[in-house]
Specification:
- The protein is α+β, with helices and mostly antiparallel strands.
- The chain has two domains: about 25-85, no CATH class; about 90-220, GMP Synthetase, Chain A, domain 3, CATH 3.30.300.
- The chain is about 40% helix and about 15% strand.
- It has six helices and six strands.
- The chain has helices at about 1-25, 90-100, 130-145, 160-170, 180-195, 215-220; strands spanning about 30, 35-40, 65-70, 105-115, 115-125, 155-160.
- α2 runs antiparallel to α3 (about 130-145).
- The longest helix is centred in the first third of the chain and has 25 residues, at about 1-25.
- It holds the Pfam family Spore_YhcN_YlaJ.
- Keywords: Signal.
- This is Sporulation protein.
């Protein structure tokens, strides 16, 4: 009799735990994940392990994106970076360039994404070359890129066709290439000097998203 009661108690607890666990899963479109990711609004294979692995998609779904992330489910546990996804810079460059050419008067866009900068060379419609129009287009191109990359990134744009080749040359390098930082810095200096960069990003930032004292901001203010 006592054994039957104990067995029944365990079964009841298991059922309660199962029901509790399924509460969130029963909500339409919310799925449980392992580790520190608590809930997502779509299956992982649809946004992390897709064949195209691109942040842009042909899927015209009207669903919102939602993920809840917890630093660690165990208090005091060290944060693990083992399963943390890294940004595919080539895919980000592809996404920015696709968005950029949808902007009116932009016919062509070459995009370079480094670990902290985005450099964009674009071609404007030949009929729209006055300073005001150039500045307006530069602002749109820049803000398009800003909407894709993390906020610590700085974005530099140019409508000078001669600088496109410089950007393409940097694209053949990587972070370990000799003089790559100096080459990037020189290219950015020319982009800022020769092409409009649009309007300041905010009250505390310049046109490229730099705050006071950052590496390019002080040089630009001296011009």
């Amino acid at each position: 009799m006592k054994k039957s009661l104990i067995t029944a108690s365990f079964l009841s607890i298991a059922l309660l735990v199962g029901c509790n666990t399924n509460d969130m899963a029963d909500q339409p479109g919310i799925y449980q994940q392992n580790g520190n990711t608590l809930n997502v609004s779509d299956r992982e294979d649809l946004y992390n392990d897709r064949a195209d692995n691109n942040i842009m998609t042909e899927n015209r779904s009207e669903k919102f994106g939602y993920v809840r992330q917890q630093k660690s489910p165990v208090q005091g546990e060290n944060v693990s970076y083992k399963n943390m996804h890294t940004m595919d810079r080539e895919q980000v460059a592809d996404s920015i360039s696709r968005l950029a050419v949808t902007i009116p008067n932009v016919d062509d866009a070459s995009v370079l994404v480094t670990s902290e900068e985005v450099l964009i060379a674009y071609t404007m419609d030949a009929q729209n070359k006055d300073k005001r129009e150039r500045t307006a287009v530069a602002d749109q191109v820049k803000k398009t890129a800003m909407s894709v990359v993390p906020r610590w990134y700085h974005v530099y744009v140019t409508d000078d066709p001669h600088l496109r080749r410089d950007i393409e040359n940097i694209a053949t390098m990587d972070a370990g290439s000799n003089n790559v930082k100096a080459t990037i810095d020189q290219t950015i200096d020319r982009m800022v000097k020769e092409s409009p960069q649009g309007s300041p990003m905010s009250q505390g930032e310049n046109e490229n998203g730099e705050t006071k004292g950052e590496k390019y901001e002080e040089k630009h203010n001296k011009r």
